[in-house]
Each structure stands twice: as C-alpha cells, then as structure tokens.
Amino acid sequence: MTVRYHKKHSLFFTLLFIFLFQNTFFFSFSLSISSVFSLLLEVQTVLRSIERVISLHSL
User: Fold this and answer.
1) Nearest CA to 16 among 30, 34, 5?
2) Mean pLDDT of residues grouped by 10 in the chain (59 residues)?
3) In sequence order, what DSSP letters do the residues of 39-59 get, joined into one string?
C-alpha cells in the first residue's frame, strides 16, 4: 500500500513538473518565488547570528 502511494505521489509530482516545464512563464515565476523565499530565510538566519554576536559582546 505504501509503495502504491509512493508511486502515485511521484507520478503526481512528475506530471506537475511537466506541466510547469511546459508553461515556462509559470515555471520561472515559481522558481523566482522559491528563490526569494530562500533568500529571505538566509537573511533571517544572518540577522539571528548577528543578534547573537551583539548580545554576546554586550555581556
């Protein structure tokens, strides 16, 4: 049952990828959105580390 579910799952993602790849504008749009989200996560991580360094120096 889990194998069947896994196959359906991968088939769904394959079809979704094919659809996105055919629709290149939407593909590039979703790619840019994901890159923006990852960039925001990086910025958040850097800001947290800077805050830690500042709090350590203030002690």
Assistant:
1) 30
2) 58 78 75 89 93 83
3) HHHHHHHHHHHHHHHHHHHH-
